[in-house]
Write the C-alpha coordinates for this entry.
Amino acid sequence: MLFIRDTLIALTYPLALTLVVLLVAALAWRLGKRRVAGVLAAAAIAWSAIWSIPHNAEWLRESLENRHAAEEAADALPLADAIVVLGGGGYTWIDRPDVTLDKLKYSRLAAGARLYLAGRAPRVILSGGGEGDRTEARNMARGMRRFGIPESALLLEERSSDTTTNARFTAALARKHGIHRILLVTSGVHMPRASLLFRRTGVAVVEVPVPEPTIGGSWADRWLPSPRALWRSGRVLKEYAGLLALCMGATAT
Protein backbone atom coordinates (compact mmCIF):
# COMPACT_ATOMS: atom_id res chain seq x y z
CA MET A 1 0.00 0.00 0.00
CA LEU A 2 2.81 2.44 0.87
CA PHE A 3 4.57 1.59 -2.41
CA ILE A 4 1.40 2.34 -4.38
CA ARG A 5 0.88 5.59 -2.48
CA ASP A 6 4.46 6.72 -3.01
CA THR A 7 4.30 5.82 -6.69
CA LEU A 8 1.13 7.83 -7.21
CA ILE A 9 2.65 10.79 -5.39
CA ALA A 10 5.75 10.60 -7.60
CA LEU A 11 3.54 10.69 -10.69
CA THR A 12 2.11 14.07 -9.65
CA TYR A 13 5.40 15.59 -10.83
CA PRO A 14 4.87 16.36 -14.52
CA LEU A 15 8.17 14.96 -15.81
CA ALA A 16 7.67 11.65 -13.98
CA LEU A 17 4.21 11.18 -15.48
CA THR A 18 5.52 12.20 -18.90
CA LEU A 19 8.23 9.53 -18.79
CA VAL A 20 5.78 6.83 -17.75
CA VAL A 21 3.32 7.73 -20.52
CA LEU A 22 6.16 7.81 -23.05
CA LEU A 23 7.06 4.27 -22.02
CA VAL A 24 3.44 3.23 -22.56
CA ALA A 25 3.53 4.98 -25.94
CA ALA A 26 6.68 3.06 -26.88
CA LEU A 27 4.97 -0.20 -25.94
CA ALA A 28 1.92 0.74 -28.02
CA TRP A 29 4.20 1.50 -30.98
CA ARG A 30 5.83 -1.93 -30.74
CA LEU A 31 2.40 -3.52 -30.67
CA GLY A 32 1.56 -1.80 -33.91
CA LYS A 33 -0.85 0.77 -32.44
CA ARG A 34 0.98 3.71 -33.93
CA ARG A 35 -1.87 6.22 -33.81
CA VAL A 36 -2.43 5.53 -30.12
CA ALA A 37 1.31 5.78 -29.53
CA GLY A 38 1.47 9.15 -31.27
CA VAL A 39 -1.42 10.58 -29.28
CA LEU A 40 0.06 9.34 -25.99
CA ALA A 41 3.51 10.71 -26.80
CA ALA A 42 2.15 14.11 -27.81
CA ALA A 43 -0.02 14.35 -24.69
CA ALA A 44 2.88 13.32 -22.45
CA ILE A 45 5.25 15.92 -23.87
CA ALA A 46 2.56 18.62 -23.80
CA TRP A 47 1.83 17.91 -20.12
CA SER A 48 5.37 18.70 -19.01
CA ALA A 49 5.70 21.53 -21.51
CA ILE A 50 2.62 23.29 -20.14
CA TRP A 51 3.76 23.13 -16.52
CA SER A 52 7.34 24.13 -17.33
CA ILE A 53 6.14 27.62 -18.31
CA PRO A 54 6.60 29.92 -15.29
CA HIS A 55 3.35 31.81 -15.90
CA ASN A 56 1.38 28.57 -15.71
CA ALA A 57 3.28 27.39 -12.64
CA GLU A 58 2.53 30.71 -10.96
CA TRP A 59 -1.17 30.48 -11.80
CA LEU A 60 -1.29 26.97 -10.38
CA ARG A 61 0.51 28.04 -7.19
CA GLU A 62 -1.82 30.99 -6.66
CA SER A 63 -4.87 28.73 -7.02
CA LEU A 64 -3.89 27.14 -3.69
CA GLU A 65 -2.01 29.96 -1.98
CA ASN A 66 -4.87 32.43 -2.37
CA ARG A 67 -7.29 30.21 -0.46
CA HIS A 68 -5.93 31.68 2.77
CA ALA A 69 -4.98 35.33 2.69
CA ALA A 70 -1.63 36.15 4.26
CA GLU A 71 -1.75 38.60 7.18
CA GLU A 72 1.05 41.13 6.94
CA ALA A 73 1.11 42.25 10.60
CA ALA A 74 1.62 39.56 13.24
CA ASP A 75 -0.07 41.65 15.92
CA ALA A 76 -3.25 41.79 13.82
CA LEU A 77 -3.80 38.05 14.24
CA PRO A 78 -5.97 36.62 17.05
CA LEU A 79 -4.55 35.19 20.26
CA ALA A 80 -4.10 31.43 20.57
CA ASP A 81 -2.76 28.82 22.98
CA ALA A 82 0.21 27.96 20.77
CA ILE A 83 1.91 28.60 17.47
CA VAL A 84 2.55 25.47 15.40
CA VAL A 85 5.30 25.65 12.78
CA LEU A 86 5.51 22.74 10.34
CA GLY A 87 8.88 21.60 9.08
CA GLY A 88 9.87 22.29 5.51
CA GLY A 89 11.95 24.75 3.58
CA GLY A 90 15.63 25.47 3.90
CA TYR A 91 17.51 26.29 7.06
CA THR A 92 20.84 27.33 5.57
CA TRP A 93 20.37 30.80 7.01
CA ILE A 94 20.50 29.56 10.62
CA ASP A 95 24.29 29.83 10.84
CA ARG A 96 24.60 33.13 8.97
CA PRO A 97 25.76 35.89 11.33
CA ASP A 98 23.86 38.64 9.49
CA VAL A 99 20.43 36.99 9.45
CA THR A 100 17.44 38.99 10.74
CA LEU A 101 13.70 38.42 10.81
CA ASP A 102 13.16 41.18 8.27
CA LYS A 103 15.33 39.33 5.73
CA LEU A 104 13.31 36.12 5.98
CA LYS A 105 10.01 36.98 4.33
CA TYR A 106 9.48 33.44 3.03
CA SER A 107 10.57 31.48 6.12
CA ARG A 108 8.08 29.52 8.21
CA LEU A 109 10.35 29.74 11.25
CA ALA A 110 10.63 33.50 10.93
CA ALA A 111 6.85 33.79 10.64
CA GLY A 112 6.43 31.70 13.79
CA ALA A 113 9.00 33.79 15.64
CA ARG A 114 7.26 37.02 14.64
CA LEU A 115 3.98 35.68 16.02
CA TYR A 116 5.60 34.78 19.33
CA LEU A 117 7.38 38.11 19.67
CA ALA A 118 4.07 39.85 18.91
CA GLY A 119 2.53 38.06 21.89
CA ARG A 120 0.07 36.00 19.88
CA ALA A 121 0.70 32.81 21.90
CA PRO A 122 2.88 31.72 24.84
CA ARG A 123 4.11 28.46 23.30
CA VAL A 124 5.60 27.36 19.99
CA ILE A 125 5.31 23.78 18.75
CA LEU A 126 7.90 22.79 16.15
CA SER A 127 6.83 19.75 14.14
CA GLY A 128 9.31 17.66 12.17
CA GLY A 129 10.79 14.21 12.64
CA GLY A 130 14.07 12.57 11.77
CA GLU A 131 16.60 10.11 13.08
CA GLY A 132 18.18 10.18 16.52
CA ASP A 133 19.25 13.62 17.68
CA ARG A 134 19.10 15.09 14.18
CA THR A 135 15.40 15.74 13.91
CA GLU A 136 14.00 18.61 11.93
CA ALA A 137 12.26 19.96 15.03
CA ARG A 138 15.61 20.32 16.80
CA ASN A 139 17.09 22.12 13.84
CA MET A 140 14.09 24.43 13.84
CA ALA A 141 14.62 25.07 17.55
CA ARG A 142 18.13 26.32 16.74
CA GLY A 143 16.59 28.85 14.39
CA MET A 144 14.06 29.95 16.99
CA ARG A 145 16.79 30.55 19.54
CA ARG A 146 18.57 32.74 16.99
CA PHE A 147 15.54 35.04 17.14
CA GLY A 148 15.50 35.15 20.93
CA ILE A 149 12.67 32.70 21.52
CA PRO A 150 13.31 31.12 24.95
CA GLU A 151 13.80 27.38 25.24
CA SER A 152 11.01 27.25 27.82
CA ALA A 153 8.50 28.38 25.16
CA LEU A 154 9.36 25.57 22.73
CA LEU A 155 7.68 22.19 22.42
CA LEU A 156 9.21 19.74 19.96
CA GLU A 157 7.22 17.16 18.00
CA GLU A 158 9.91 14.83 16.62
CA ARG A 159 8.04 11.72 15.44
CA SER A 160 6.27 12.91 12.30
CA SER A 161 7.34 11.98 8.79
CA ASP A 162 4.62 13.64 6.71
CA THR A 163 1.73 16.08 7.02
CA THR A 164 -0.68 13.44 8.30
CA THR A 165 1.59 12.56 11.20
CA ASN A 166 2.45 16.25 11.71
CA ALA A 167 -1.20 16.75 12.53
CA ARG A 168 -1.69 13.56 14.55
CA PHE A 169 1.36 13.85 16.80
CA THR A 170 1.12 17.62 17.21
CA ALA A 171 -2.52 17.34 18.25
CA ALA A 172 -1.58 14.71 20.85
CA LEU A 173 1.17 16.97 22.19
CA ALA A 174 -1.23 19.92 22.25
CA ARG A 175 -3.83 18.01 24.24
CA LYS A 176 -1.17 16.93 26.71
CA HIS A 177 -0.32 20.58 27.40
CA GLY A 178 -3.88 21.90 27.43
CA ILE A 179 -3.59 23.58 24.04
CA HIS A 180 -6.87 23.91 22.16
CA ARG A 181 -6.40 26.74 19.67
CA ILE A 182 -3.36 27.11 17.43
CA LEU A 183 -1.89 29.48 14.91
CA LEU A 184 -0.82 27.10 12.15
CA VAL A 185 2.24 28.22 10.17
CA THR A 186 3.20 26.58 6.89
CA SER A 187 3.58 27.62 3.26
CA GLY A 188 0.54 29.01 1.49
CA VAL A 189 0.63 26.15 -1.00
CA HIS A 190 0.69 23.55 1.77
CA MET A 191 -1.87 25.30 3.99
CA PRO A 192 -5.18 23.98 2.55
CA ARG A 193 -4.21 20.35 3.12
CA ALA A 194 -2.41 20.97 6.41
CA SER A 195 -5.33 22.96 7.81
CA LEU A 196 -7.80 20.24 6.86
CA LEU A 197 -5.71 17.54 8.53
CA PHE A 198 -5.26 19.56 11.73
CA ARG A 199 -8.94 20.41 11.91
CA ARG A 200 -9.79 16.73 11.64
CA THR A 201 -7.85 16.10 14.86
CA GLY A 202 -10.23 18.42 16.72
CA VAL A 203 -7.78 21.31 17.13
CA ALA A 204 -9.10 24.83 16.48
CA VAL A 205 -6.96 26.30 13.71
CA VAL A 206 -6.15 29.85 12.66
CA GLU A 207 -4.25 29.68 9.37
CA VAL A 208 -1.06 31.75 9.00
CA PRO A 209 0.18 31.00 5.47
CA VAL A 210 3.71 31.96 4.50
CA PRO A 211 4.07 33.25 0.93
CA GLU A 212 6.52 31.86 -1.58
CA PRO A 213 8.71 33.89 -3.94
CA THR A 214 6.97 35.03 -7.11
CA ILE A 215 8.47 34.93 -10.58
CA GLY A 216 10.10 37.95 -12.18
CA GLY A 217 8.20 40.52 -14.20
CA SER A 218 10.00 40.25 -17.53
CA TRP A 219 8.57 38.39 -20.53
CA ALA A 220 11.35 35.81 -20.38
CA ASP A 221 10.81 35.22 -16.65
CA ARG A 222 7.14 34.51 -17.23
CA TRP A 223 7.07 32.59 -20.50
CA LEU A 224 10.35 30.78 -21.11
CA PRO A 225 10.14 27.15 -19.87
CA SER A 226 12.38 26.30 -16.94
CA PRO A 227 13.14 23.30 -14.69
CA ARG A 228 12.28 25.41 -11.63
CA ALA A 229 8.80 26.15 -12.97
CA LEU A 230 8.31 22.43 -13.64
CA TRP A 231 9.36 21.62 -10.08
CA ARG A 232 7.07 24.26 -8.60
CA SER A 233 4.14 22.97 -10.67
CA GLY A 234 4.84 19.47 -9.39
CA ARG A 235 4.67 20.65 -5.77
CA VAL A 236 1.24 22.15 -6.30
CA LEU A 237 -0.06 19.14 -8.23
CA LYS A 238 1.10 16.97 -5.33
CA GLU A 239 -0.94 19.12 -2.94
CA TYR A 240 -4.02 18.78 -5.13
CA ALA A 241 -3.51 15.01 -5.24
CA GLY A 242 -3.25 15.01 -1.45
CA LEU A 243 -6.46 16.99 -1.09
CA LEU A 244 -8.22 14.59 -3.45
CA ALA A 245 -6.96 11.64 -1.40
CA LEU A 246 -8.33 13.23 1.77
CA CYS A 247 -11.71 13.78 0.16
CA MET A 248 -11.72 10.10 -0.82
CA GLY A 249 -10.84 9.01 2.71
CA ALA A 250 -7.18 8.16 2.06
CA THR A 251 -4.01 9.74 3.42
CA ALA A 252 -1.12 11.40 1.65
CA THR A 253 2.24 12.77 2.68
About this structure: Strands lie at 82-86, 124-127, 130-131, 134-135, 154-157, 181-187, 204-210.
